[in-house]
TrEMBL record:
One of its GO terms (cellular component) is mitochondrial small ribosomal subunit. InterPro entries: Ribosomal_uS14. Keywords: Ribonucleoprotein, Ribosomal protein. This is Ribosomal protein S14. NCBIfam families: PRK08881.1. One of its GO terms (molecular function) is structural constituent of ribosome.
Length: 117
């Protein structure tokens, strides 16, 4: 079995809080991107290098296009770790606006307080 195929098999995850299939898929995508990023950078360098022969550049382009979709950085979507939703997620806290409001009002987010002036 290839190294790439073993990357996408189910594993024991250390995700805290709410877990659904979308969060598991996102976790797998983030790991795949992290592991294949040096290879993707090398291929992109070969493709852009105009001093190389056209055949080498074309082979690099073919190799890059045949890589698994989960290895693309554009596949990663910011998701709320508390609810799993992908809309209105604050990057700093990795939670959506509703969860942010609930946790802030409950005093669970350090350094965050309700504005009043």
């Amino acid at each position: 079995m290839s190294k790439m195929a073993s990357m996408f098999r189910p594993k024991k995850l250390d995700l805290s809080g709410f877990v659904n299939t979308r969060l598991i898929r996102d976790h797998n995508k983030r790991n795949a991107v992290e592991q294949t990023e040096p290879e993707r950078q090398a291929l992109r360098y070969l493709i852009r290098n105009t001093s190389l022969p056209q055949r080498v550049r074309a082979q690099a382009q073919l190799q890059l296009s045949q890589m698994h979709a989960y290895t693309r950085p554009t596949q990663i979507k910011n998701r709320c770790v508390a609810s799993g939703t992908a809309r209105a997620v604050f990057r700093d806290f990795r939670i959506n606006r509703f969860q942010f409001r609930m946790q802030a009002l409950a005093g669970e987010l350090p350094g965050v307080k309700k504005a009043s002036w």
